[in-house]
Amino acid sequence: MKKTLLTLLSCSLVLSGLPTQVLAQSDDSAEESSEVVSTEETTDVSTEEVSSEEATEETGSEEAEAENAEETSDDAAATESETEEETESADEQAENAVTIKMGYGAPHGDKSFAVTYVVMDGDVVTHAYIDEFQFLEEAEGVPNSDGAFADGFAEGVVLASKRQNDEAYSANMEEIAGATQTYGESMDAVQAFAEGKTLEEIQAAIDELGALPEDGSPADVVSGSTFADTSGYLQTIIDVAEEGFEFQGEAAGDIANAEFSYSLQPLSQDTAVSLVGVLHDGETIYAVAQDELQFNAEGEGVPNSDAGFGEGIAEGNVLISKLENDEAYSANMTEIAGATQTYSESLKGISEAVAGKTVEEVEAMLEEVNNLGEEDNVADVVSGSTFSSMNEYLEAIINTLK
Fold first, then answer.
1. Element spanning 33, H or E
2. Residue 99 to residues 290, 297, 349: CA-CA distances in angstroms?
3. For helices 359-370 and 343-354, angle between their N-to-C axes, nearest 10 degrees
4. Is 124 buried (19+), middle (13-18) or exposed (0-12) by CB count in 10 A?
5. Cα–Cα distance for residue pair 205/214, rounded to 1 Å
6. pLDDT 10s digit of each residue in the chain, 402 long?
7. Which helix (H) or strand (E) holds 68?
C-alpha cells in the first residue's frame, strides 16, 4: 500500500515537473519531523520529571533551612540564657560583695576629729573601727611628720593618732579626767558594742545614754566604755554607715568572722599620710578603704578645722581629706598630671583589683608595677586605677597586713 501511494505521488510530482529526489527528501523530513515531535514530547516529560525533582529538592532545601533556623534560634536562645545567667551571677556577686564605708566626724569636743570605718552585712554592723587625730606637744606624729607634711603644723605641735599614742594619751586622760582605763580599751568597747547590732539598735542606745542621770555611767549602757562622749562615737558609726564613702570588694562567705586591720602609712613621697583599712581573712583580702590627709592652701578642711583643732595648723594651710575634696583635687590632678579619672575612682579601682587576692599576690602586682616601662600603663596591672605612684598604694596595703 505504501509503495502504491509513493508511486502515485511520484507520478503526480513527475507530472508537476518535480524530481522524485525531492519527494524522497520530503518523506525523510516527515520521518525526522515525527522524530522531533517524539523528542519534544520526551523533553517535555523530562522537564516535568526535572521540575518534580527540583520541587523535591526545594522542599528538602526549605526543610533544611527550617531546621537550620530552628538550630540558630536554639543557639541564640542558649546564648541569651547564658548571658542572663552570667548577668544574674554578676548581680548576685555584686549584691554579696563586701563594702567598707569610710568617713570623718567630730565625736569628742572641738580639738580633734575622727576617721571611722564601718562594714555591714545587710542591716547589721559587723565591723566598726575609730581613730582620732589631735595636735599634741609631746607625741609620736603621724607618718611624714619629719618631712614636708610637717610644714602644715603650727610651731611646737605634731599631728598625732590617739590609737598610735594610746599609752601617753591614756596617761593624760587619767591625770586630767580620772580615766580608769586606757583610750584603746574604751574605744574597743564602743566598737564591740556596735558590732552585731542594727543602726536602729545603736540609735536606741544613744537615746538611752542621753537619758542617763548625772551620776549615771556610760558603762551602764555600753559595757566597758568610760567615755563621757560614748554617744558621740556611736553616732559617728551611724553617720558613716549611712553616708560614708563606699569601697566595694570581694564577696565573703563569713563576713562576721573576718578581721579588720588599720594602719597609717607614708604616701605621696613625704607630703601626705595615708589612712588604710583592710577587711581580710588571714592573708586573703576582701576589701580595702584608703584616703590621704594633706595640707593645702585651700579646700574643705577636716572636721573642727574652724575650731580648736585648727589652732594646731600653720597659717595659710588647711588639712584636707582628698576624698572629701574629690572634685577639686581630681581637677588639680587633671591639670597638673593629665589624670583621666577622679581620685576616688582610682582608689576604688585599687580596692576592686586587690579584692580576693592574697598578700603574696598583691606583692606580685607590686613587682609588676615596679617593672613597668615609661610607655607602659599602670592600669594594665591594676585595672581601674591610673595613679602614677601605684606602688605606694599597694605597699600601704601590704604593710597594713604585715
1. helix 20-96
2. 13, 33, 13
3. 130
4. middle
5. 17
6. 433 333 322 333 332 333 333 323 334 433 333 333 333 333 343 444 434 444 444 445 555 555 555 555 555 555 555 555 544 544 555 567 899 999 999 999 999 999 999 999 999 999 999 999 999 998 999 999 999 999 999 999 999 999 999 999 999 888 887 778 999 999 999 999 999 999 999 999 999 999 999 999 999 999 999 999 999 999 999 999 999 999 999 887 789 889 999 999 998 679 999 999 999 999 999 999 999 999 999 999 999 999 999 999 999 999 999 999 999 999 988 888 788 899 999 999 999 999 999 999 999 999 999 999 988 889 889 988 888 889 999 999 999 998
7. helix 20-96
Q: How many CA atoms lie less than 13 Å away from 347 in the CB half-sphere? A: 23
What are the DSSP calls for 277-340, one per residue? Answer: EEEEETTEEEEEEEEEEEEESSS-BPTTTTTGGGGGBPTT-EEEETTTTHHHHHHHHHHHH--S
What's the grid cell of residue 259?
A: 578581721
d(CA 76, CA 379): 34
Long-range CB contact pairs, 361-368, < 8 A, 24+? 362/285, 362/394, 362/397, 362/398, 363/398, 365/394, 366/391, 366/394, 366/395, 366/398
Cell digits of residue 212: 542617763
Closest to 274 in 3D by CA, of 282, 263, 285: 263
Burial of 284 (0-12, 13-18, 19+ CB in 10 A): middle
> Any idea which residue has 516529560 for its cell?
45
Identify the DSSP state of 152. Answer: G
Look up cell 585599687; give the residue. 350
DSSP 142: P
Residue labelled with grid coordinates 552570667: 86
| Full-model pTM | 0.77
For residue 309, what are the contacts with CB-CB under 8 A and spacing of at least 6?
110, 111, 112, 113, 134, 135, 302, 303
Distance CA 402, CA 397 (A): 9
Which position has the grid cell 555600753? 222
